[in-house]
Amino acid sequence: MQNRFLPYLLTLPSLFLAAIVIFWPVWDLIQISTHDVSRFGQLRDFNDFANFGALAADPDFMAALWRTGQWTVMVVGGALLLSIPVAMILNTDFYGRGIARVIIMLPWAVSLTMTAVVWRWALSGESGMLNSALIGLGIIDHNIQWLASAETAFPMQVLIGILVTVPFTTTIFLGGLSSIPDDLYEAAALEGATPLQQFREITFPLLKPFINIAIVLNTIYVFNSFPIIWVMTQGGPANSTDILVTHLYKLAFRIGKLGEASAVSLVMFAILLIFTMIYVRLAMREQRA
Amino acid sequence: MSLAKWTVGLMAGMSMLAIAAQANAGEVRVTVAEYSAKTAPYFADVKKEFEAANPGITVKFEVVPWDVLLQKLTTDITAGTNADLSIIGTRWLIDFVQQDVAEPLDSYIKPDFKDRFIDTFLSPSIMEGKTYGLPIAASARAMYYNKELFEKAGIAKPPATWTELQDDARKIKALGSGTFGFGLQGKEIETDVYYYYAMWSQGTEILNKDGTSGLGTPGALEAAKLYKSMIDEGLTEPGVTSNNREDVQNLFKQGKVGMMITAPFLSNQIKDEAPNLKYGVAAIPAGPTGARGTYGVTDSIIMFKNSKNKDEAWKLLDFLFTTEQRAKFTQGEGFLPVNKEEAKMDYYVNNADLAAFTALLPDARFAPVIPGWEEVAQITSDAMQKIYLGGDPEAGLKDAAAKANAVLKK
């Protein structure tokens, strides 16, 4: 007869560690966000959630919230759509596959900030590489000011977001694809299934748990991703490319409203928590059915 | 081995520990901003020279990029792990004073020490009659113009007024071949300041006399309309809101921009990166009434109230503000001299570029010393970006003035 409490006892140390690393900062954030707080973080009086009220009344915050949704959906969605075919190609046996895999993984190895800096240069209006390339190819006849307005800057940021999310997603899918036994495809081919049918009936259903993992993890990463937008536009011009993290950074470290900034970060935490719970619940139910 | 020997050994060991502890107590930590690639080597030299002259004191410089300096200070102060001294933007000083983290330096400052400074640059660091910081870096802005483009366009001298500037910009634009008349900065730090140059020339100040925002005045509107008309007419570089100060400076160094307003350090950069560029430095253009203004800015080095080594820290400050040290730092970084003796050196007296800057100092405005200034500046920059992108100047400024006044009222 095993001790019923043994599992709990065994997880206690890691729970304790998690409490220090995760729960303590969150507790601290709750403290800061519900109090009047000085520029340097000294707590003053409890202020009846005035910081949260200020956020709800701030059009820049609401715009950033909405844009964060677009940003996350487009980057995660785009990365998924791109990664499935990439992973499938890399899973087939061809000459130079090793090199191809390395190339796909490279963006992952470069720091995100450096990637963003390089793209900022490349997208510069007068001396940027992209403009000279496009003019050289005869696609455009005058320089496009990519980062001058949100209409061109934000789509470019999304594209770069997708680019840097693909390696991680592809890695997950490659793991998933290698777990699908080859004889399934052989049998399907014998029965006369087309490649498209094979994808729809075999690859996609068996890849689903991996897609679910990729969606949850990527959503968390992308939702919180700071460097691409900060380095390229700092959320500008006129806050038109702000997402919640860049908005938070400006609130905290430019303007010195630590209370409101903590409130933003709690809102972000709540959104991610709720999203993850709902999604995991849905994905689990689907798998059981 | 006898007990006595053990005791002696133990005592020796303890005294060594005591010395070690003392050495630790004599450590002065300083957070400094990285102005250029020359900053870190300069402070490394300071450490060497100062420690040699002051045995028992060790100095530790933490060199931090400008962009993250305020963030680092905020987190350090919140956690209570701040250094003994730090460079800060003087415009942040009021927050440090109000939150009671800055130590007044008056008890250390002897009359002859105070006499080393040029008053214009020391006064922004004085609040409520107490000196909280010493100006470690000082700068002003003036207009750079490309002599070659001026010559090609047939312009004899740099513009004295904004109307002349527009005319000159038209002539430079007419040269074609990717040249732009006026470099207008529309992104990141000092986007608001670039607008103030035009605003000040209309006789409008950042704050009205009653303490409300100047953005709601007719002069502010005129200034915004001036810049917007120049953008619409194609007299500026395209994509204004994608160009920060460095981007516009780079265009100037490449000879693509006829005129731009920036700090003295551009001269140093041109010397290193575009030595063949023929340029001149002139006053910032005046408005219809002859009013003009430039932006004066100082960074202060402050002592923290919770420092445990204030006397040692003061010794370092005294060392940093000797004429010799000041000259080395200021000339390396391309700042203006804050020290009277230093200003008399040949380097400054015979330098035409710097003379243009110092001539503008009587017209210099410093960032207003008010709490919430950073937020007002952010509001102004955002409003300008909207206008530069094609927004209506009148509505944009009205909205910005209302927002700024809400901050100022607090």
TrEMBL record, chain A:
It comes from the Bacteria. It is found in: Cell membrane. This is Carbohydrate ABC transporter membrane protein 1 (CUT1 family). Residues 65-279 form the ABC transmembrane type-1 domain. Its main location: membrane. InterPro entries: ABC_transporter_permease, MetI-like, MetI-like_sf. It holds the Pfam family BPD_transp_1. The chain crosses the membrane at residues 7-27, 71-90, 102-122, 156-177, 210-232, 261-280. It is a multi-pass membrane protein. Belongs to the binding-protein-dependent transport system permease family. One of its GO terms (cellular component) is plasma membrane. Keywords: Cell membrane, Membrane, Transmembrane, Transmembrane helix, Transport. It comes from Rhizobium loti. The keyword Transport applies. One of its GO terms (biological process) is transmembrane transport.
TrEMBL record, chain B:
Keywords: Periplasm, Signal, Transport. One of its GO terms (molecular function) is maltose binding. One of its GO terms (biological process) is maltose transport. Residues 1-25 form the signal peptide. It comes from the Bacteria. Pfam families: SBP_bac_1. GO terms for cellular component: ATP-binding cassette (ABC) transporter complex, substrate-binding subunit-containing. Belongs to the bacterial solute-binding protein 1 family. This is Carbohydrate ABC transporter substrate-binding protein (CUT1 family). The lineage of its organism: Bacteria, Pseudomonadati, Pseudomonadota, Alphaproteobacteria, Hyphomicrobiales.
